[in-house]
Every structure is written in C-alpha cells, then in structure tokens.
Design a protein that fits this description.
Elements (H helix, E strand, L loop, with lengths): L9 H8 L7 H13 L3 H21 L4 E5 L9 H5 L6 E6 L2 H10 L6 E5 L5 H5 L2 H6 L7 E5 L8 H14 L5 E7 L10 H12 L9 H6 L5 E2 L5 E2 L22 E7 L2
Parallel strand pairs: 1-2, 1-4, 2-3, 4-5
Antiparallel strand pairs: 5-8, 6-8, 7-8
Helix pairs in contact: 1-2, 2-9
Length: 265
C-alpha cells in the first residue's frame, strides 16, 4: 500500500488517536504532525468518543434497539456495538467511506450476527438506506438511533451536507434519535493558530479536508427534531458520566467540538 502524503485517512487517524491498532505508518505520521500543530487533538478525540458512548447508553435506555452509525471509522474499544450490548437484542450497522476501515471493521465483527459494516458515503444516503445488510438488521418502521459523530466537518459543501442529513432524518420513524457531533467555528478557542494548523495537516495528508461550522449551522442538521437536555453543547458537557476522560474537567478551553441528541416527534 502506498504510504505517501495522501494515503492517511480520517478513520485510521482517529483510530490511532484513540489508541487503536488498525492504522498504517501514514496515519501515525499524520497524527504526530497533528499533535505537533495542535497538542489538544488527542484530548478532543477522547472527549468525542466519550460522548458517543454516553449517547448510545442514553438511546438504549430510551428503548432504541437499532443503531446506524454513518461515518463510523473503525469500531475500536468502546464503540457502539460494545456499548449497545447491554441490551441483548441491539443491532448495529457501521458505515464508512474508507474501504480499509470497513474491512477492519468486518474482521473485528466476525461472528457477530447483530452487527456489520459496509462501505458508503454520507453524502449519498439512498444506497446506504437501501443496502441489503442495512435492511436485514434495521427496520425503519421502528425507532433508530442515527449516529453522525465527528464526520460532517469532513463534508465542506453545506448544501450537500444538509441535504444528505435531511434524507437520513426523513427515513427514520417517529421516536428515532439523531446523535451528532461537529467541529465548531465560533466557540473555537484553541491556542492561536492551532485550528488552522490542524486543518492544514488534514488537507496535506488526507483526501478529506477538515472544516468547521457555526453553532447555528450545526443545529440545522437536526431539522425539526427535538433536542434532549442539555441541547447542543461542547462534548464533555453532554450528560457527563463518572467514566469520562478528565482532559477538560477543569477547563474547556480548546474543546472545539459540540454535540447533541434530538428526537424525531
């Protein structure tokens, strides 16, 4: 495999940031460049993963038994199928655009009849929604937990991003939930230059440039879904739990990802 400057991917970079092993030298080199440019990146990744865990627990407690994770990356430790396993009949479908991430996911999930992974593009929802594996595990006549966590900031076109999420929302039954996190512009209080430097690393080393949006633009992704408390907040503030990482326990400065969960009425 070519490990040149364009061979790193967001999925495998995230895997390495979280301590995973499903990554290549190009991904590790990109992370080292990221950390040099923006030292808080690993802490931001840990806070985002902790939000995902808490959101899945919340959805399971709310009665959701099927989860569609779009832009899932690689299901390393603490991912959706492990958290959802607390309810015996939970089903999970992971979707990612990176074929290596999908192959690694399928290897991890080998033998698991209630979880699978497939290749798909968030910007093209219909092939995902109609995929046989999605239809096998998920009934859109019943509530679904749609997870779009830390991926939309890799879709720079606002119209395409909003339209795609709108199609996913439309496919969901009443009582479904959308859990979403996104890099935010107006709350960006990373040390001067860090955010721009991190974006430059993604632009130089991956095919998925990184960007941010305003809180109002991020709220639009939820459409007419009704936010559960506490609404759209920085990731460590969304229903914190005792097992959360402590990186931002005393100071939220630099935590420039916001998250929320909302219910379809």
């Amino acid at each position: 495999m070519n490990d040149g400057p364009k061979s790193a991917t967001a999925a495998r970079i995230y895997d390495y940031l979280l301590g995973g092993t499903h990554n290549f030298p190009a991904d590790r080199d990109a992370v080292h460049a990221l950390v040099q440019a923006a030292p808080l990146v690993p802490a931001i990744a840990r806070a985002n993963r902790a939000f995902l865990r808490r959101a899945v627990r919340f959805l399971a407690d709310a009665g959701v038994r099927q989860f569609l994770d779009v832009g899932s990356g690689i299901p390393t430790a603490g991912n959706v199928h492990e958290v959802a396993a607390a309810v015996p009949d939970a089903r999970v479908v992971y979707v990612d655009i990176d074929p290596v991430a999908v192959a690694e996911s399928l290897e991890i999930l080998d033998g698991n009849q209630r979880a699978t992974a497939l290749r798909g593009d968030l910007q093209d929802p219909e092939p995902i929604l109609d995929h046989p594996d999605v239809r096998r595990l998920i009934s859109f006549d019943e509530p679904v937990g749609l997870l779009i966590v830390s991926v939309l900031h890799f879709v720079p076109d606002d119209t395409r991003a909003q339209d795609a999420v709108g199609l996913f929302r439309k496919a969901l039954a009443p009582g479904s939930y959308l859990a979403l996190s996104h890099g935010v512009a107006e709350l960006d209080d990373l040390p001067p230059g860090d955010a721009e430097a991190a974006m430059d690393v993604f632009k130089a080393r991956t095919a998925t440039p990184l960007g941010t949006r305003s809180p109002d633009d991020i709220k639009r992704f939820f459409g007419d879904f009704e936010f559960v408390e506490p609404g759209l907040v920085r990731t460590p503030l969304w229903r914190p739990a005792p097992d959360d990482p402590t990186d931002f326990a005393d100071n939220l400065r630099g935590c420039n990802v916001v998250a929320g969960v909302a219910r379809k009425p």
